Amino acid sequence: MKKILPFFVIILMLSTACSKDDSGDSSSSYVKFKINGTSKNFKHVESVKSESSESDSNTWLQYSITTSEGANRLNQVDFSYTVIPQNNYIGDFSITIEGITYETMGSVDPLNFTIEISESNKDFIKGYFAGKLYIKNYKNEDSESVTIEQGTFEIQL
Fold first, then answer.
1. Which among 17, 122, 155, 156 would be 20 to 30 A from 29, CA to CA?
2. Beta strands per DSSP E along the chain
3. Which phi and psi angles does 136 have, rounded to 5°?
């Protein structure tokens, strides 16, 4: 029995070792963009789903999505994604950089900011965004703003 015990310990150690394919975050979700010319790539994604219905025939889903560079919440992107029977849309879009939050002037401001869904199904959404965002709670054209370019996202729901 004493000779067999070391053999089992070695087998146990080999069976619990990590493979080379383990990379931590296996999700393919991301949000990429340039803010005032500086590239950002957020891969840490949290999605919270809620369901509501106004009547039996009008049930909708809403996802609150937060993406960041990891545990650092000084830099993140937040938005909501709503799925209703005839239309899907994104609202409440904001970007926080170094603790300062920038957002659209209104739910989504078509004059200064564009966000579009290019593909979606029950498992993911994909799209793009660009334009100007303004410091939160100072929603006028004289507020400090940032320019967002080449924004793309793919979120696993």
1. 17
2. 30-35, 38-42, 44-55, 58-68, 76-84, 87-97, 100-103, 113-120, 124-135, 145-156
3. -55, 140
pLDDT one-digit tens code per residue, 41-79:
999 988 898 887 665 566 778 899 999 987 777 899 999
Residue 42 has what DSSP assignment?
A: E
By DSSP bridging, strand 124-135 and strand 145-156 are: antiparallel
CA 141 – CA 52 distance, rounded (Å): 35
Taking the model in full, what pTM does it have? 0.72
Two tokens, residue 84:
């209703």
In angstroms, rounded to a whole number, what is the distance separating the alpha carbons of residues 89 and 81? 6
Q: Running DSSP on this structure, what letter comes out for residue 115?
A: E
